[in-house]
């Protein structure tokens, strides 16, 4: 106790401004609470989990051909601090200038167009968010960071850097949640009442497995519901609640993603790729592919990609 008092006395002597600020804030606290049993409640929803931070410092570090990196079940927040880019989120082009932030919900296509600068400073925060429904991408536009937002981001980075601290994970989760709710207030209204395990939702995983096992079949929602042993209406409602997008859209975009992977990693023609994934009309396939991914199927062929890189 004596040592603690000694440390406090040293702080008083060396940082009078700090003590004055703290005293001033203490004096603004009411002397008597109106209700001794009613205080500030904690956030009632679940917190971000399994948080990963990484950065991009150069245009060459961006994934150019790995379509799988653009369509997954984790949440992604991108902070653009240097360099300009257009990020295509589903069908929407989003221009990102320095100081911009974009939130990408799970299972939404995203890729980068028109990266203006060679030198970048982008921070990516990806995480699972159990029990939280994803808003539609149309509800989430890029936002500009304020000075207060920058201070919050600085706190996130400082907490992440202290990974030897046993409280690092909990503090990081709280700080990331604070940044999210401040930048994107709509998220405060998107909680599920029931707990959903961290990671890919079980129902999404079951649907994905069925699609993987039947790549040549153009399965309908009714087909998938029958294979899972539940009604189509129940499947639709539960899938949207878990994934934040409709099941029909997920199935359509899953097939397009698989087509993109085949086109970028094999010598199959566009026609053969479309047929292999159950598309009966190559023209309808090409239109849907271009509309959803923002690029033509032929542009992903290995030969065309290498020609583009050599220009």
TrEMBL record:
HTH araC/xylS-type domain segment(s): 205-303
Protein name: Helix-turn-helix transcriptional regulator
Keywords from the UniProt entry: Activator, DNA-binding, Transcription, Transcription regulation
PANTHER family the UniProt entry points to: HTH-TYPE TRANSCRIPTIONAL ACTIVATOR RHAS-RELATED
UniProt organism field: Ruficoccus amylovorans
GO molecular function: DNA-binding transcription factor activity; sequence-specific DNA binding
Family annotation (Gene3D superfamilies): Homeodomain-like, Jelly Rolls
Top-level taxon of the source organism: Bacteria
SMART domains (UniProt xref): HTH_ARAC
Pfam families per the UniProt record, alphabetical: Cupin_2, HTH_18
């Amino acid at each position: 106790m004596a040592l603690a008092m000694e440390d406090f006395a040293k702080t008083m002597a060396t940082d009078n401004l700090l003590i004055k600020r703290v005293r001033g804030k203490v004096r603004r606290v009411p002397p008597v609470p109106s209700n001794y049993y009613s205080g500030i409640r904690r956030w009632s929803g679940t917190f971000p989990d399994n948080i990963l931070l990484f950065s991009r410092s150069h245009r060459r570090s961006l994934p150019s051909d790995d379509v799988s990196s653009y369509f997954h079940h984790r949440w992604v927040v991108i902070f653009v601090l240097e360099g300009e880019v257009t990020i295509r989120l589903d069908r929407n082009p989003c221009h990102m200038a320095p100081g911009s932030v974009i939130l990408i919900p799970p299972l939404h296509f995203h890729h980068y167009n028109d990266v203006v600068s060679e030198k970048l400073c982008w921070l990516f925060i990806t995480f699972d968010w159990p029990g939280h429904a994803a808003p539609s991408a149309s509800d989430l536009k890029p936002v500009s960071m304020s000075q207060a937002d920058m201070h919050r981001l600085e706190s996130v980075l400082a907490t992440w850097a202290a990974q030897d601290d046993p409280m690092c994970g909990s503090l990081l989760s709280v700080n990331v949640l604070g940044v999210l709710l401040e930048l994107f207030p709509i998220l405060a209204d998107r909680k599920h009442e029931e707990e959903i395990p961290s990671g890919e939702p079980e129902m999404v995983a079951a649907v994905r497995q069925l699609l993987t096992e039947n790549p040549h079949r153009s399965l309908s929602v009714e087909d998938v519901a029958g294979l899972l042993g539940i009604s189509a209406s129940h499947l639709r409602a539960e899938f949207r609640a878990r994934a934040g997008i409709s099941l029909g859209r997920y199935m359509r975009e899953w097939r397009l993603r698989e087509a993109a992977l085949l086109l970028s990693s094999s010598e199959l023609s566009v026609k053969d790729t479309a047929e292999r994934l159950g598309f009966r009309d190559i023209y309808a396939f090409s239109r849907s592919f271009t509309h959803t991914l923002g690029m033509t199927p032929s542009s992903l062929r290995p030969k065309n990609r290498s020609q583009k890189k050599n220009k």
